[in-house]
């Protein structure tokens, strides 16, 4: 059974930084994709960034490109999201996701991911 465990959320002022971590257990197949979605109050779940475990290709939402960096530690089966230059509109619950390798055109679709973490709150104050 796949389990995703997130950490690193919190409260930060606009312009500040936070790093989220997500450690996976139970991923028994190679070639999977891990990453992050977020959901703000009253809004739909939104794609943030993902990384392909094989090869390390990364993909970002336009709203975070240039400010957020996704990376992985293969030995720890952990994915990180370094969030810089945070804005109040980044405030949301951030969810870690994982699944088998997903085609590029579907990477931003929440329905493509079978495994989700419990979520971690990120609050950016103005």
Q: What's the total number of strands? A: 11
Categorize the overall geometry.
globular
Total DSSP helices:
0
Helix-strand category:
mainly beta
Order of helices and strands: EEEEEEEEEEE
The radius of gyration computed from the alpha-carbon positions, rounded to a whole number of angstroms, is: 14 Å
Mean pLDDT across every amino acid position: 94
Gap between N and C termini: 40 Å
Largest sheet: 7 strands, mixed
Instruction: Please bin the fraction of helical residues.
Output: under 10%
Low-confidence parts, pLDDT < 50 over ≥5 residues? Answer: none
Residue share in β-strands:
over 45%
Molecular structure report:
With 126 residues, this protein is mostly beta strands. It has no helices and 11 strands. The strands form 2 sheets. Strands 2, 4, 5, 6, 9, 10 and 11 form a 7-stranded mixed β-sheet that branches. A 4-stranded antiparallel β-sheet has the order 1-3-8-7, with no helix packed on it. Strand 7 and strand 8 form a beta hairpin. The protein is globular. The N and C termini lie far apart (40 Å). The mean pLDDT is 94.
List keywords for this structure.
single chain; 126 residues; mainly beta; seven-stranded mixed sheet; four-stranded antiparallel sheet; 0% helix; globular
Brief characterization of the structure:
The chain has strands at residues 3-7, 10-13, 18-25, 32-39, 46-52, 58-60, 68-73, 78-83, 92-100, 115-116, 120-125.
SSE blueprint:
Blueprint lengths: L2 E5 L2 E4 L4 E8 L6 E8 L6 E7 L5 E3 L7 E6 L4 E6 L8 E9 L14 E2 L3 E6 L1
């Amino acid at each position: 059974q796949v389990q995703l465990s997130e950490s690193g959320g919190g409260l930060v002022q606009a312009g500040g930084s936070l790093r989220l971590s997500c450690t996976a257990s139970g991923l028994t197949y190679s070639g999977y994709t891990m990453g992050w979605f977020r959901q703000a109050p009253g809004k739909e779940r939104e794609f943030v960034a993902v990384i392909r475990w094989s090869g390390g290709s990364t993909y970002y939402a336009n709203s975070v490109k240039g400010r957020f960096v996704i990376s992985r530690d293969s030995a720890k089966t952990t994915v990180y999201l370094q969030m810089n230059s945070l804005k109040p509109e980044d405030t949301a619950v951030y969810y870690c996701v994982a699944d088998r390798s997903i085609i590029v055109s579907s990477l931003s679709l929440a329905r493509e991911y079978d495994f989700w973490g419990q979520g971690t709150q990120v609050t950016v104050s103005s």
